[in-house]
Amino acid sequence: MNSAVEENKSKKQQVRSMFNNIAHRYDFLNHFLSAGIDFHWRRKAIRLLGKKHPKSILDVATGTGDLAIEARKIEPEKIIGIDIAEDMLQIGRAKLIEKKLDHLIVLETGDSENLRFNDHSFDAVMVAFGVRNFEDLKKGLSEMYRVLNNGGQVLILEFSKPRKFPVKHLYNFYFKFILPALGRIISGDASAYTYLPESVGKFPDGKDFLAILRDIGFTNTQHIPLTFGIASIYWGQKAT
């Protein structure tokens, strides 16, 4: 941990504090700093999930609920979103009321690595831009596996590291210099958008992440790169 993480706090405590601090500008920054392409990524992920017609969905690290809101399009019977940052959830709940979706989607405070749900509770578990923030990645993924029904699907949307020139170099420059500066100016939080490129850089993406999913027990794993490898969709299934 470095300047983006306070030494006297665990990663989980730091992440909670950081996202609570930027909650008021989080949605705007997401869409602005990605030039709106994050909408496309979520739509593509949910279209993929919809092929399996899940009736019950858990959205882990839901933030302000954007992925859960997108998931309504595949007509599940219930969606529960959890997050450790209560300020993010409050904004998400207001969005649900505005969109008249609060009867379908419930957002609640919860720890991704200690889920309150029983075994075999959901047809699908999904995460958007959250697994790299887990304090214990394997524990969080194991919890997701545990609460899935047999044959259930896991879908993870996460930033990844482009490998090819010139996208790799442009991406690295933007992530290291432009994004932190803009994020600091707009959100007023210097650490949040320094933490973002650091956390992406440390995340075991691509084949390395698929290996972790298989180690947890997921089968039929897939990796779908998005937008020249800037982000990725990961897919897996709990054995029947």
| Regions with little confidence, pLDDT below 50 for 5+ residues | 1-6
CATH structural fold name: Rossmann fold
Assign the CATH architecture. 3-Layer(aba) Sandwich
Estimated helix fraction = 40-55%
Shape: globular
Can you put this structure into words, describing what you see?
The chain is globular and about 45 Å long. Strand 1, helix 3 (66-71) and strand 2 (78-83) form a beta-alpha-beta unit. The protein has helices spanning 11-33, 37-50, 66-71, 86-98, 137-147, 167-187, 192-202, 207-216; strands at 56-60, 78-83, 105-109, 122-128, 148-159, 219-226, 231-237. The termini are far apart. The protein is 45% helix and 21% strand. The protein has a single domain (11-160, 204-237), classed as Vaccinia Virus protein VP39 (Rossmann fold, 3-Layer(aba) Sandwich). Mean pLDDT is 92; it is low at 1-6. The relative contact order is 0.15. The protein is an alpha/beta fold and 240 residues long. It contains 8 helices and 7 strands, in the order H-H-E-H-E-H-E-E-H-E-H-H-H-E-E.
